[in-house]
Amino acid sequence: MSLVVIGSMAFDALETPFGKVDRIIGGSATYVAWSASNFYKPIKAVSIVGGDFPKEEFDKLTERGVQFEGVEVVHDGKSFFWSGRYHMDMNTRDTLVTDLNVLAQFNPQLPESYQDCEFLMLGNLVPAIQKSVIQQLRKRPKLIVMDTMNFWMETAMEDLKEVIGMVDVLLVNDAEARQLSGEFSLPKAAMKIQAMGPKYLIIKKGEHGALLFHGKHVFFAPALPLEEVFDPTGAGDTFAGGFIGHIARTKDISYENMKTAIIVGSAMASFCVEKFGPQRLQSLTKKEIDDRMDEFVELVNFDIDLVGA
Amino acid sequence: MSLVVIGSMAFDALETPFGKVDRIIGGSATYVAWSASNFYKPIKAVSIVGGDFPKEEFDKLTERGVQFEGVEVVHDGKSFFWSGRYHMDMNTRDTLVTDLNVLAQFNPQLPESYQDCEFLMLGNLVPAIQKSVIQQLRKRPKLIVMDTMNFWMETAMEDLKEVIGMVDVLLVNDAEARQLSGEFSLPKAAMKIQAMGPKYLIIKKGEHGALLFHGKHVFFAPALPLEEVFDPTGAGDTFAGGFIGHIARTKDISYENMKTAIIVGSAMASFCVEKFGPQRLQSLTKKEIDDRMDEFVELVNFDIDLVGA
User: Fold this and answer.
1) Shortest Cα distance, chain A CAs vs residue B76, angstroms
2) Which residue of B has its CA nearest to A291?
3) What number is the ipTM of this complex?
4) Which residue in A29, A136, A233, B84 has its CB near the most CB atoms, within 10 A?
């Protein structure tokens, strides 16, 4: 059995109020893999890269139990490239460059070895490709988690809705939840989106935490108040990786366990933003993860002693 | 022993995306009293009103254990009037009218009967008046909680800092914490503000919850995701009232108990926004408060089951 992750593997150029990098490893599949591999293996990646993607990056992830049979290497092509600049509040950013490069011709063919997929993480990508991967799996995975973004709502809404109808858990941010549902109130947006298919909806609010909706239930996970947010790139993918990694490890897809999975995702995201790109994730120890989980418990834990004048 | 509350008692005119009222009871002392009186009595108010302030409003609060000996009535004057319009996101608003009226001449003389003050809640007001009330108390209260706003940072920063140096708990919103400290990061802002005097700092983030800082400790209380936010006016004062009401009831000023007090404040604020002005607070039952506290427990409660790939 395995966790299959589909997404981009890419280069990013980043500018934040704290510094600048011209070329650093990025991509949704990369971040998900770095994050989830703390909790589960094997992870089987589906992606496409150019001949410029460094062998060392594959090697480092291979050591952590990530497999790449489903990653197409186009030797005379260039990897996907994204460049962005963050504003002071780190919640908003401008995209400066998007070079699809080899991603423009991405049409993944799932290797036979990926048919043991028990958990499927659809990283942010063209909805039609996300759909194709679901359809290529002969046995439906135990849980399908999907990430997406506003860009697909503007350019491929019909395809997007079709994929949303096929998944169990949808991950979007608050603005995207509003855009997708046409509702400003998040609880109302959550009801409408659940009616589109997914039984679980996670709304990410960046530094303001994340909400998990399921039927009429709602759970809130805070973000850790951080002294320094160095670079938010990949935080959402890292969150998704921690979420699916915890679910895959425990093989428990209950609502109760998803709450814990969201705290794991929040903890992983809080590391991601401490350095440029996936660097912080690459140096992470189990002890550091355990300690940060304890910080989350302390952050929200209170004794209830009820009222009466 | 008593809880003394100082603040405005006023009329508001409000416009939200959901409706409009031309004249409704408002003021920080009013909201604090409605909220705190669910948990504690007697509450002794310090304020000033004009001859136009309705006797029925005093009567309704008197029934709940609120006393008004320290409230000056200027029979030929008009009560403070504020008018504002909320934007769609309900987190931002424009002030349309501010008529200080009798508040301009407010120079409270604390009645002798208020000297039994055990807990002091300084609602948002001119810092010099807040200071005067502290100085008039011969015995320092067990806990002094202070609310303030950006307006005083712009017009009376020296006075404001002096009062901040005299209190135990300061309540501000995130923008105000940044303005007061000159730090963008909230944990850094919290360290600087604690160095100004208050050992406890509560940073309110509206629909994104509230943070309690104490030394290096931090606690986060979510806001309940609400289907309808009808009118946010008074939510901050109502939060403060729930906080100080719980502390006064339990007489426990520990950090642990302040966590619970913040959840109580959040629960009370979640009611406040459901109707215009203090209307919802006026119809509240103990059962409703207990049920909402349970919702908060459900909102953040999770089982921790730790990691290991």
Assistant:
1) 37
2) B306
3) 0.83
4) A29
